[in-house]
Specification:
alpha/beta; Quinone Oxidoreductase, Chain A, domain 1; Rossmann fold; 2 domains; 6-stranded parallel sheet; 11 helices; 15 strands; globular; disordered N terminus; binds NADP nicotinamide-adenine-dinucleotide phosphate
Length: about 375
């Protein structure tokens, strides 16, 4: 069982990665490369739109900045963030990303697992050849750059696929339960949207904290939720947990599809609701009404943003290596089929994680 205090150690460095985010001065002379090819294959897009705008192209290999690492990408994984940014909808996403008419960052993909190819001048903890996982800019490519603090060493006993499935989804589940939700042993915890990337990790992590876990998912995923350790499973097609009279100490909405008042009704008197994701209307309700409802009542209603940290990556990597959590790998696609992978995820019924495998030509 995990203790909240013990797992809260470590510094917080960064918020969720912005794909292809701000690029500072490049320092070609500061890096040691293993592979001298100048060009690489990468998925790119130059206009907002559906997954069809994603193209496999040949582009210049990126060069890491002083604090960055160049990674030879072996496996990437897809997150809803990828299709949200691709669509550029609603419009405020474009404001956040800094590309009003056209995307400024043209290389999608954040989750990554691979080998360090080169390191920038001020990188001290990693060296060429190290096996790493974490988040980066543009992981749907043969090579990608990431700040050192957004990467952790991959434990020897886990595969690159398993490692690539972890970063955004497992960190979101961990931080929502532990940091925002203050999860404690014996609490009644409900995970809504328990069968996707975040939800499948949330069930397992909540069990590690000693909670009594209820998973909410559709009929076809009930057995999987049980096999991941859920003590109770509610099929949302047959039963409405907000009307059962059961109350929960902590509700984590991995994929929220209900009005915020429904969740509030299902909380104990001092219960906490943490909204990770879902429909835009649910996100706006959590952002705008959440603080007000928390202020006027004893229940806490909060929205949450994950922060990628090396400490939490390493913590989750250890849980995986010890067999305490397992990533549920739904589908794998080769790099050329990223558009199909993103389309599948956007349909909203992935069963766990979708990964992209990247094959490399000889240097
Ligand atoms: N705030 C943050 O920092 C943060 C971080 C990561 C992700 N997110 C957000 O969190 C959300 C979930 O991410 P994810 O990676 O888990 O996505 P995902 O893998 O695409 O989630 C799909 C899952 O959602 C479930 N679902 C769909 N409709 C549902 C409903 N009406 N009730 C309950 N479950 C339903 C599906 O289960 P069934 O097939 O059983 O219906 C499916 O397994 C996304 O909106 C994402 O943008 C936010």
């Amino acid at each position: 069982m995990l203790s909240t205090a013990a797992t809260k150690r470590g510094e917080r460095h960064s918020i969720l990665p912005i794909p292809g985010g701000p690029v500072r001065r490049r320092t070609c002379e500061s890096v040691t490369r293993l592979d001298y090819r100048r060009l690489m294959k990468a998925i790119t897009y130059t206009e907002y739109g559906p997954p069809d705008v994603l193209k496999l192209t040949e582009v210049e290999k990126p060069t890491p900045m002083d604090n960055e690492v160049l990674i030879r990408v072996l496996v990437a994984s897809v997150n809803p963030l990828d299709w949200r940014v691709l669509r550029g909808k609603p419009f405020f996403i474009r404001l956040l990303m800094g590309g009003l008419r056209r995307p400024k960052a043209t290389r999608p993909g954040a989750d990554v697992a691979g080998k360090v190819e080169a390191v920038g001048r001020s990188v001290t903890g990693l060296k060429p050849g190290d096996e790493v996982f974490g988040t980066c800019r543009g992981s749907f490519a043969e090579f990608a750059c990431a700040p050192e603090e957004k990467l952790a060493l991959k434990p020897a006993g886990i595969s690159f696929e398993e490692a690539a499935a972890l970063p955004v989804a497992a960190i979101s589940a961990l931080q929502a339960l532990r940091d925002k939700g203050g999860i404690r042993p014996g609490q009644k915890v409900l995970i809504d949207g328990a069968s996707g990337g975040v939800g499948t990790f949330a069930i397992q992590i909540a069990k590690q904290f000693g909670a009594d876990v209820t998973a909410v998912c559709s009929t076809g995923n009930v057995e999987r939720a049980r096999s991941l350790g859920a003590d109770h499973v509610i099929d949302y097609k047959r039963e409405d947990f907000t009307k059962s009279g059961q109350r929960y100490d902590l509700i984590v909405a991995a994929n929220s599809h209900r009005p915020i008042f429904d969740y509030r009704r299902a909380l104990t008197r001092d219960g906490t609701y943490v909204m990770i994701g879902g429909g835009w209307s649910q996100i706006f309700q959590a952002l705008l009404l959440g603080p007000l409802l928390s202020w006027i009542g004893s229940r806490k209603m909060t929205f949450f943003m994950a922060r990628i940290t090396r400490t939490d990556l390493a913590f989750l990597g250890d849980l995986l290596a010890d067999g305490k959590i397992v990533p549920v790998l739904d589908r794998r696609y080769p790099l050329r089929d990223v558009a199909e992978a993103v389309r599948y995820l956007e349909d909203g019924h992935a069963k766990g994680k979708v990964v992209i495998t990247v094959e490399h030509r000889e240097a």
